[in-house]
Structures are given as structure tokens and as C-alpha cells.
Amino acid sequence: MFFFCRPKPLTVHLFTAREDVFLHAKPQKAINYFPEWVKQIPKANFPEDQSEPLKKKLTIKSCPAFANLYSKGFMFPLWSDLNVEVSGDSWRYQFFDGASYAESHSSSQIAYSPFEENYIQLKLNNPWAYISDADVDMLFTPPSWNNFGFGDVIVAQGAYSPYRFFSRANINLFFKKQPERAIYQLFFGHPLVHVVPVTERKLILKHELVTESEFSRRHAANGLHLFGQNRFKRLRKLCPHGK
């Protein structure tokens, strides 16, 4: 007799010290951001010519891969309206909440890449941080089906495991340089990043509002944890049984 055990759910804890963000910009499961434009499309399109097989009449709404995508993971929405002005190699930004901020990495970090000459890189410091209760990679990917209208803005991809330590979910964007002054407008509530855990476990999201001191304390402790974790990995390589 075989017994099949359902795997334990994956719990992701999300923290913020900002009450406005906690109340109005909570990360939610991806299904909550299912594109409105798709809801207006019929599952099948029946033209006058009925000779074609049914398979050719089905629309994107009937695509299992499309529906399955929105059943996975969760999304971080933009927590404030944001304008980014780009003119050649110069740029500046403005968050409309008066509290958020962004920064740009040194150009040397993207040297020799296709982005170096053609894009401005900007890292949005996410007011949310998160941890998970299992060592599972989280795939950060752009919600492409929601991003029509983003134009020349690229959401950077990556994979990361916030296992048991406090991690800032910062978001890297690339804005295409323009020969003349251009303003990119991103709006509050729009999904910026689709986070897909690389697991078949059911996902549980828990949100928590903490004090600024608690948020800072946990973030500082994260650096110590990473140092210890990297040191452990180096020692493990020296052990013949640790590979």
C-alpha cells in the first residue's frame, strides 16, 4: 500500500515598517493581478468559416500555460507613483509618496553588457522585506502580460532564496536612454515583479507591519547571517563529506 503525503506549504513572511504601504500596497498572489484585458476575451473565437478545427479557434484565454502562470507565486506592486526623467546619460527620479528612494549601481557593474551603452539602471529600494521557511529559490521575473505600456523599461530577472533570513526585495529596472529628454511614468499599484517560488508547494503569504527600529535591526542582522553563511560554505568545501 502506498501513502502519498501532501508537501508542507511554503510560507513567505513579508515585512514593512510603512503603514501606508502595509495598508495599500501589499504583495498579493499572482492571480489577483490577472490582466483585465484577458478577462474581456472569449475562450474561443468562432468566425463564419466553420471548416477550421476547434484548436485554431481557441484564444489566449484557453491557453493552459497562460492560466498556470497566474496560479504561481506572488507579485510586488509599485507602492507609489514614480517618474523617471532620462536625457542622454543623465537621469533623475521622483517618487510621489515623498518617502521612497532609488539608487543606481556603478556603471562598472554592467560593463561590457548590452545595457552599458543603451540603458540607465535604477534600483528601487523596496519597502518590503521577506523571509521564507524553506530553502527554495524565488524567481524574479517581469509580469510581461501586465506590462503593456511600459515601453522601453526592462525589469531585471534573477533567482534568490530568502531562507530564514531577512531580505530586501529590491527591484532593478533599466530605462532606455533617449537622444532627447524623456519621462517614464510608472503608477501606484501596477505589478512590478512576479516572484515565482521554484517548488510545487502551496504558497502562503503572511504580511506584518513592524516598527522602523525592528525593520532596521532585522536588516542589520541579515548582514551577519550572510557573513556566517558564506563562511560556513567555504569551510564545507574543505570537508570531503561536505560536497
Characterize the structure shown.
It is a single chain. This protein is of the alpha+beta class and 243 residues long. The protein has 2 domains: 186 residues, Deoxyuridine 5'-Triphosphate Nucleotidohydrolase, Chain A, CATH 2.70.40.10; 35 residues, no CATH class. Helices cover 19% and strands 30% of the residues. It is built from 5 helices and 16 strands. A 5-stranded antiparallel sheet has the order 2-3-15-9-11, with no helix packed on it. A 4-stranded mixed sheet has the order 12-8-1-16. Strand 4 and strand 5 form a beta hairpin. The radius of gyration is 21 Å and the shape is globular. The two termini are 36 Å apart.
Tag the structure with descriptive keywords.
single chain, alpha+beta, Deoxyuridine 5'-Triphosphate Nucleotidohydrolase, Chain A, 5-stranded antiparallel sheet, 4-stranded mixed sheet
The CATH C-level class name of the largest domain: Mainly Beta
Instruction: Output the CATH topology of the largest domain.
Output: Deoxyuridine 5'-Triphosphate Nucleotidohydrolase, Chain A
Low-confidence stretches: 224-228, 230-243
Mean pLDDT: 84
Rounded Rg = 21 Å
Number of domains: 2
Main pleated sheet:
5 strands, antiparallel
Proportion in helices: 10-25%
Give me the secondary-structure category: alpha+beta
Number of helices: 5
CATH superfamily of the largest domain: Deoxyuridine triphosphatase (dUTPase)
CATH architecture of the largest domain: Distorted Sandwich
Strand content: 25-35%
Give helix and strand order, one letter per element, not per position. Answer: EHEHHEEEEHEEEEEEEEEEH
Distance between the ends = 36 Å
* Largest sheet strand order: 2-3-15-9-11
